[in-house]
Amino acid sequence: MSTLPSSTLAEGTDTALSGAYKLTGPLLIGCFLNLILYGVLCTQVYIYYISFPKDRLASKGIVYVLWFTETLQTILNAYVIFDIFCFDFGNFPALDKVNLTWFSVPILSGLIGCISQLFYAWRMYAFSKKAPWLSMILSVIAFTQFAGAIACGIQARRYGYFSDLYAKAKVPILVSKSSLCLPFYRLLAGVVECERFV
C-alpha cells in the first residue's frame, strides 16, 4: 500500500495563495453571471422565434447574428475559465496571460455593441425623418467604438500579458460608449414616435 506524503497541498501552500481569491474570485463570478445571462438570452431568442414568425428577414438576421456572437463569446469565456482553474490551477503567472480574452472580450463585445447601436440608429431614422444627421452621428459613434475595440484587442494580443497591457497600452480606455449616445436620446425625447417605441 502506498503512503501519502506527510504534507498536503493545503499545508504546503505559502501566504501568497491565501490572497488568490482576490484574483480568481471575480473571474469565476463573472463567468457564472455570463452563463446565467446567456440562459436568459437564449430564452428571449426562443420567445422571439415563437412570437414573431413573420418578422422581416433583416430583423431576424440581426437577432440571430447577435445570439450567435454571444454564444461564441460565452464558449470562449468558459474555455478561458476552464484553462485558468483546471490546467493552470495554482499557477499565478498564468493568471496574467491574455489567452483568448483579447478576442472574446474587446472585439466580440465591440461587434455586439456596434450592431446593436446601428440597429437603434436605423430605428431612429425610420421613426424620425426630421433629423437624419442624428442617425449618422450615432452610426459614426458606433463604428468608432468598434474600431477602438479592435485596437484594444490587437494590443492585448500583441503584449500577451495583462500587466504589460496596463503598463504599455497606447489606446486609452474610454468612458462607456453608451454615455456618448445618451445626449442624442435626450434630444429626441420630445418625438412621440421615439417615445412610443423606446
From TrEMBL:
- Annotated TM spans: 27-49, 61-82, 102-121, 133-156
What's the source species for this entry?
Answer: Guyanagaster necrorhizus
What domain of life is recorded for the organism? Eukaryota
User: Which keywords does UniProt give here?
Assistant: Membrane, Transmembrane, Transmembrane helix
Protein name (database record): Uncharacterized protein
